[in-house]
Design goal:
The complex is a heterodimer of chains A (269) and B (332).
Chain A: H1 5-31, H2 36-43, H3 46-79, H4 85-91, H5 94-97, H6 100-111, H7 116-121, H8 132-157, H9 160-168, H10 173-202, H11 207-210, H12 221-230, H13 234-268
Helix pairs in contact in A: 1-13, 3-8, 3-10, 6-8, 8-10, 9-10, 10-13, 12-13
Chain B: H1 2-20, E1 22-30, H2 34-52, E2 55-63, H3 65-73, E3 80-82, H4 86-96, H5 108-111, E4 114-123, H6 133-136, E5 143-144, H7 152-168, H8 173-185, H9 194-202, E6 209-213, H10 214-224, E7 229-232, E8 236-240, E9 244-246, H11 248-254, H12 257-265, H13 270-278, E10 282-283, H14 286-291, E11 300-302, H15 304-308, H16 311-319, H17 324-330
Helix pairs in contact in B: 2-13, 3-4, 7-8, 8-17
Chain lengths: 269, 332
Amino acid sequence: MLPGFELALGFTLLYLSLVVLVPLSAVFMKSFSLTFGNFVETVSAPRVLASFRLSFGASLAAALVNSVFGLLVAWVLVRYRFPGRKLLDALVDLPFALPTAVAGIALTSLYAANGWIGGLLEPLGIKVAFTPLGVLVALVFIGLPFVVRTVQPVLEDLEPELEDAAATLGATRWQIFTRVIFPALLPALLTGFALAFARALGEYGSVIFIAGNMPMVSEITPLLIITKLEQYDYAGATAIAVVMLVTSFALLLFINWLQWRTRKHSDTR
Amino acid sequence: MHGLRAVLGVVLAFAASAALAQVTLLNVSYDPTRELYQEFNAAFAKHWEATAGQKVIVRQSHGGSGKQGRSVIDGLQADVVTLALAYDIDEIAERGKLLPADWQKRLPHNSSPYTSTIVFLVRKGNPKKIADWDDLAKPGISVITPNPKTSGGARWNYLAAWGHALKKSGGDEQKAKAFVTALYKNVPVLDSGARGALTTFAERGMGDVFISWENEAFLAVNELGKDKFELVVPSVSILAEPPVALVDKVVDKKGTRKAAEAYLKFWYTAEAQEIAAKHYYRPVDAEIVARHVSKFPKVSLFTIDQVFGGWHKAQKIHFADGGVFDQIYSRK
């Protein structure tokens, strides 16, 4: 074992406890003030279930969209040299920096029926703002940097010699991408996916403006938590939060496991 | 050494006298009262320095009424709370035990020194000919109002609609429910707060009518353009009472009771009542009301106590989980 392990581990545990575990356990404690029956009743109400479907569904979809297009953006930024590349690179981080409410209002004004994009889609019968589709748009916006920023450094470190070697061995471009490049990027892509997903799940500020917030249709789970809090129903709010926490933790663990497997797989090959 | 001590003594004495001569109050209020309280605070500071010889600095905190109430329960050191509805202060009394349960009886007019009512904002020229509540429930009319479950202010909107239908049907609850259901079927977007809903109506161009507090409707017309929107006052509406209260536990701990009490009492002076009127809140002082009859149209007003038996009952029956408002949306 490396020297300093105990001290470093002790510090890590303390830090994680203070920053993550203690606040989260407070959430669990508060939800314990409900009886089990009440807890189940709260989290299985039709409106709550509908919000879980929307929140988890839209977050997963947004993370998927970002995985595809984020990879594309990272690819372009790493592999090509063109004027304005640095500027484009900086743009990627903007969703990080922008206050989410600003993002929400901006997106809503774009996608509303009288907005630039919404005005073009309206004649086609596509409504984005104030529908679940609007939720997806907002979540794609806030999640993009996570994928780009995790894939980019790995892509930069990828040795071009590998691709040259593959080419000399007679691989087609498609084969080079699917057999050489993609497996090397997959662990980073999975991380980016997980981060974008987790971020989307907890997002409130930007979604609330574009969602329309109609019960059973476009209410996200964080909104229902706020609704409970407005009734001073702390226990009910934390009950929903607990379900969200446990589910997202399980999903993140699963993604980490996938990532561990793909890494092991590519190492042994 | 002596010199230093003397200097230190002078500094300390100065600091002590400065502390005596100055008091800081925190007023935790709801969203649209920012400008109102800026002016009121300045007037009170002048008044307090003249009468008590003490400088007073009033800090303001604004946010959604319910969120502000929770902050006070969770420990925000508010000397006074001035929120959108009595329910939020009731909860501070009940859950936080920071003030007595009968707080609303301590000041005149249900502790509401300024009031408002619920009116309609329509597009210029009133193209859909919206004149009264019944028009809002007609098919083909699109109504913008925030979600009463997340917006305290929007609860008044809902209750005003209910009260109208109840009065019209001679107290038939089923008819009132049918009317409110039809009205909310016409609502395409439920924003979480009043400001967001106004943006939806004014900037996104959605809806034919926006249900609003009167003072906010006045502001909206002034800010967004008299050429774009106009106000429609229904025949009957609710008296919206945004109450004020002293937070006893906090003022006693901080030793600010005297100034905080005077702060709230100052609302009932002619000077402060004029400030309320200037910011489009209806004054409660009959004499000041008389001066502004042209500004505030006559509406037949009912109170929440008359029609709903107070906030606690209204909250429980209409806005709690599984309440009437939820039933509107679960009966699809």
